[in-house]
Each structure stands twice: as structure tokens, then as C-alpha cells.
Amino acid sequence: MPEIRAIPLEGVGEVRPGVDISELVLQATRKKRQKLQPGDILIITHKVVSKAEGQIIPLSSVKPSPATQRWAKKFKLDARVVQLGLNESRRIVRRRNGITIAETRHGFVCANAGVDASNVDGGQSAVLLPRDPDGSARQIHRRIKSRVGFSVPVILTDSFGRPWREGLTEVAIGVAGMKPLRDYRGQRDAHGYRLRVTVDAIADELACMAGLACGKLSRAPACIIRGYPYQRGRGSGRDLIRPAKRDLFR
Amino acid sequence: MPEIRAIPLEGVGEVRPGVDISELVLQATRKKRQKLQPGDILIITHKVVSKAEGQIIPLSSVKPSPATQRWAKKFKLDARVVQLGLNESRRIVRRRNGITIAETRHGFVCANAGVDASNVDGGQSAVLLPRDPDGSARQIHRRIKSRVGFSVPVILTDSFGRPWREGLTEVAIGVAGMKPLRDYRGQRDAHGYRLRVTVDAIADELACMAGLACGKLSRAPACIIRGYPYQRGRGSGRDLIRPAKRDLFR
């Protein structure tokens, strides 16, 4: 059983709208210890991808509705950020205590539809989720493959809260080059017993691992995971979204 | 920024009721590459702790109620396993399609109150969660500290499902020797901006990382995480359970 390593990718340059993220990543990996190897997985926080794709909204351009202004005032929130979250939502799941849990257009359920104004542009702008996180991951995956000559799966991440448990954990919102779920059903464990009802959210666990290596306070927006025997395949971040008919919590 | 490693602990002996888990772990770590070092964190799947503590129930001893028998028959489940889950629950959160999401006596919300009959004793027994996962973690932490001479935080894990997302991820149910949550509120990021509303569930992310290294099919019930700059402190698995008054989903 090999060990698994999370190697933060240092030296990724400033991300501005229009830059090619795969190029920034490749430049950073030229440093010796960070060189990409076959078997590596690349985890990237979605925020740099959103920035590169211009998914940044100046808050001065947002006009909150009167209802949003009242709600924001009551809970001491920035009404423009709340309004952006509503704009990005296709369904409100819960709304209480100043917290809006919403389903995004992609189908992700998270706080404020993934709209985040902290840590961006001195609080003058908000970052949205990428329009098509799987498409963004596939593009980065393709470009890196064409340059290094082998497939490096790409996972784009965000930090989501969860019902019943405190604290945020990282999740995968875009996936390319690997299967995000591992299905053990029908397989046998080390003792020869058949495993039942066991599907692991590998891509989310990889996102968590990268979250530990990069951290909120660091400058590393990406991380290499080395040593995890992932399953090749098309895969998609949507595979991790539970279909409505199997969802006990809607 | 250092890299983080997950090193599966191989060679942990057979776990029978009454064995000392800390002793089994220490024996396994005597192998050179697995030697414990200051800064290491020890992640242990709760199943071996439950076994050691005798939290194994022969299914032949369980008498399901008539209602449980009807429900189990309808969904082709083992009524004895369903009954054990109900016995271990203090609140039923959802019950549909043969799935019971319950709050355990500890306060964890998970499928069948954490009762698991797969992968145990050829399906003739079920494993319950440890009675006091924090207490178990503290005992292992204390014993290992007294033997190696430094503190190695201990996290006990289980695999939980989640609303809205497919697949299981590992979570921390017992913690000793470190803070399971990292609170960034009021701190500044690499760009000098103050971070808001950001608390990370570090212990859950460490559990996920260990889950990748150990895997469902392997024989490694424990894992060393090396290189993560954890925060010392008392910490508890209960810190990760959201209090009822802050819970939007009850």
C-alpha cells in the first residue's frame, strides 16, 4: 500500500481575466519538486478559474431588490452579495438566520449559490462559480495533456457547508480525466466478504486532501495529489450530485 | 509550504474484543517507515475500535418488531440490522426507500445510526459505533503519548452519506489531542484581506485523506498523516456536530 502525498503548487502567478490557467499551472510545475508525473491528479480551487473566466462581478453594478435590501439589513449583510446569490440560484433550499442555502444552476446545493465576496478585490467584487465547471476542468485537462504527454485528471473545488455538521469541507464541482465515484458494490474486502451499498465520493475526498495542503491563508490555489490509484474514465462533477428522485432531503 | 502525506499503517493485527488498540498500533509503527514522529496525526477507522470494545452484536440475538419486519421485507433488508439501527437512534431524521437516516445517541446524523453488518464476521454480526468515541480517542491518545513520549492526535472515523451529494465520505466521530475545527474569522489572507465566516472542518478533511490511503478493500485500519500543521488543544468529535439552534435542517 503506497502512501499518498498532497503537494501544494507554489508560484502560480497572479490570475487575471483571460489568462490560461493551464499555462500558469505548467509554469509553476517547472520547479523541480513540483514536476507533474504520470499518476498525478491536479486539484484547483475554482476561484482562480472563475477569475480567469471573468466570473467576477463588481458589486457596484448590482441592484438589490427592496426585499433583498430588507433581508440584508436585518442580518447585517451586503445586499448586493445576497442579490447575486439569488440571481445565481434556481431553487432556494433554506433561508433563515441570514443564511441562504440555494441550488445553483448547475445543481449544487450550497450557501449563497457559491457567490463569494470575501478575499476578492478588497471586497469590491464577488466571484461566481464557473459557468461550466466540468467544461473548465476538461479544457485544463486537455491542454495539460497536450503539453506533458500524459493524462493528469483535473478537479475544481469549492468549500461547502453541510447540514448537521460544523465547518466547511472542500468538494469537487468540476472533474475531468477520472471517475469521481468509486463503486465497491459486489467487490470483496480483504476478508473475502462481499461489500454492500458502498460508493465512495473519491473526488470530494481528494478535494478535502488538497484543502488541507493549500489552506485558506496560503497563496497556493492548486495542489498535486500523488500516489492515489484513481480510476480513469470520463467522469463529471455532476456524477456527485444526487438525482432528485433519490434525494431524501428535498 | 510543506507537503502532507498519508501513510497507511500496515500490519495491524487481528482485532478481537478486549485487545488494546494503542498496543496494536504501536506494534505496527515499529516498522521503520511507519515510525511515529512528532507532528504526526493518527487516524483510525472506528470499526476496529468498536470491535476491540465489544460493540459487536450477533444478529441472532436481535428480535425485530413486527413493524420493522414489514419495513425490512418491503425493501429486502435484514430486519435485525434495521432494528439495531432503530435501537441506537434517538431521532429519526428521514425514512424512505428503505433508507433510515437517524440521529445517534451521540448526536451524529447518518444512515441506520451507524450500525453496519457488512464486512463483519461473514454478515453474522453487526458493529455499532463506539459508546463514547471521544473517550476512546482520548484513551488511545494518552496511551500512545505515554509510550512514545510526545502527543500524537487521534481521530476515529466513519463513512457517512450526505444530503444532495452522491457517495460516502469519511468523517471524524472521535477526536483527541487537536482542534477539529480551524477558525479563520478575523485573520487575513495572503493578500491582506480579512477572511469572513470561514471555519474549516479540518478533522473531517483529515478523515477523508486517510480514507483515500486506507480504502475499503485494504487491510489498513489506520493511517498516519504527516506534515499537517494542526492546532493543539483539547478538541472533541462533538465540536463537529452543529447545535440544534444553529441547524437549518431539523
Descriptive terms for the model:
alpha+beta; CofE-like fold; globular; 2 domains; homodimer; 6 helices; 25% strand; 250 residues; three-stranded antiparallel beta sheet; 60s Ribosomal Protein L30, Chain: A
Which secondary structure elements does this structure contain, and how are they paired or packed?
The structure is a homodimer of 250-residue chains.
Chain A: E1 4-8, H1 21-29, E2 41-45, H2 46-52, E3 56-58, H3 66-74, H4 79-87, E4 89-96, E5 99-104, E6 109-111, E7 125-127, H5 133-148, E8 154-162, E9 165-176, E10 182-183, E11 199-200, H6 202-214, E12 222-226
Helix pairs in contact in A: 1-5, 3-4
Describe it.
The structure is a homodimer of 250-residue chains. With 250 residues, chain A is α+β, with helices and mostly antiparallel strands. Chain A has two domains: 5-54 and 129-241, CofE-like (60s Ribosomal Protein L30, Chain: A, 2-Layer Sandwich), CATH 3.30.1330; 56-126, CofE-like domain (CofE-like fold, Alpha-Beta Complex), CATH 3.90.1660.10. Chain A is built from six helices and twelve strands. Chain A has helices at residues 21-29, 46-52, 66-74, 79-87, 133-148, 202-214; strands at 4-8, 41-45, 56-58, 89-96, 99-104, 109-111, 125-127, 154-162, 165-176, 182-183, 199-200, 222-226. Chain A has a five-stranded mixed β-sheet. Chain A has a three-stranded antiparallel β-sheet with strand order 4-5-6, covered by helices on one side. A two-stranded antiparallel sheet of chain A has the order 3-7. In chain A, helix 1 crosses helix 5 and helix 3 crosses helix 4 (79-87). The first copy, chain A, is globular. The mean pLDDT of chain A is 91.
